[in-house]
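#struct-queue
[09:14] JT: dropping the first one here, sequence first, then the structure tokens:
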Amino acid sequence: MDSKERVMVAVNREKPDRTPCNFHGTKVICERLFQHYSLGDYRDLMDVLGVDMIDIRGIVDPIWKGPIPKITHLSNGVMQNYLGWQTKVMKTIYGPVEEHCGYIFANVDSLEQLVEADFRWPQASWFDFSHMSRELLKYKSYGIVASGASVFQHPALVRKMDNLLADMLVAPEIANYLFDRFTDFYVEYFDTMFSQTKGQIDILRIADDMGMQDGPLISLELFREFMSPRIRRLSEMAHSHGVKVMFHSCGSVLQFVDELVDCGVDILDPIQTRAKDMEPERVKEKCKGRICMHGSIDTQYTLPVGTIPEIEQEVKARIEVLGDEGGFIIAPSHTLQPDVSIESIIALYESIKRYG
């Protein structure tokens, strides 16, 4: 069983020959791993760690050919990308981290003002996907993930989170406009990508953080009204290409599982076990036989500050609880940040090999 087969067996909620695993780290983490192992190729790194999946964003991307700069450099080190996000690289004691720092529609007061704003909404035609099929051949034995779709989180990065949450209650026309603009773009963008890569991509990852540490960010009623129809659109598009769907949300989101299953989501990510109601046993009971579980290794305490024995014990426990009957892909519960040491990462993946 190769990595792709192993991943897809788990996605179909069955038990493969061993528990498959995934990896995703920030640029700083990847550079440190390349240096540690004396590697220069991402596939070599995946092989060293024993990873079964690859997120192709930043590895195999479409070529930009848009009519505006893909990234515009503003003052004081602020960068604005073609989606309207404003970010800045911040220095921390662990290394540089790119953070969001501005919101282009934060001061919009009406739908009319938003519609008339001086902003060019991106189109799939701004990208050339024609080379991707050839470049993906290098990774054909892995479970291949295309990430970047968003219904809620990306609108929040141009509107500002508190404004967007208020819009859903008092100005739904603004929320719906932003949700539709991003959903329309991502449906077109990934439909084009999947059409031109002809079955090579296995999973579409939608990322929309809908949970906090102590509960969901919005009510189930608001989720059904605003999120479900758009998640369903993305899922139906992906499934029309034979592509499975992963939904990413940090925090406490167990109450949304039924709705996600109904929307066609195949994989729940990242299972933040320190959040309320997200204990592995509770997640297993809710998800068993209905949706594949992905993630679960704690990035709030265990990986950044835990001991090597604690990491090993957590890996063993997660596989015993979540993976004993299949339908589980083990991975960190967030993109690995610069506060996670190389020693901890090595311990994580060596433990997965040992117990998986």
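[09:21] JT: and here's the second one, same format:
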Amino acid sequence: LAQQVGAAGAGLAVLSGAPRGSFTGFLADWTSAAGGRLVRWEPFDQTALRLASRRIFGRDEVPSHDFAKAKYIVSFGADFLDAWGPTVEHQRGFAESHGFSREGGMAKHVYFAPRASLTALNADEWHGITPGSEASLALAMAGVLLGERGLTAPAGAPSVSAEQAAAATGLKA
């Protein structure tokens, strides 16, 4: 195998469905050093997330979040410690940001989701909400934050009041 890989040079392609992280970095470095290229595919395409990333960040990829640098984490149903995105990378970053020995203090984590998942159980605050109501809650919170700053949402942006979000989520306004 080593002889065939060495002889392949630029004809070498390594196919991988592994998520972003240290193993994928190793594969990319190893393949490049051998003269080839790493070809990645995503078994779960996550088209909507990729489209949002392209529209917001100009990058057609699933974003990776640096939880290690977070000071305050608010998650709306994204079970980032168990089943959402590159979980090992998220777990490492969360452990760093949520550690008591962290310089500058421990990050606070608030989670809104219908199920008591691994992410919910590790949150400083978990609020059980009605399934599918995460967007209403996020929009209502954005509206409150904009209002507190004397700002308004862009024209055409959806608007949800705190009362509407309360009715949707089962939480108090």
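[09:30] RK: nice, looked through the second one.
[09:31] RK: The first helix runs from residue 2 to 8.
[09:31] JT: good to know. The mean pLDDT is 89.
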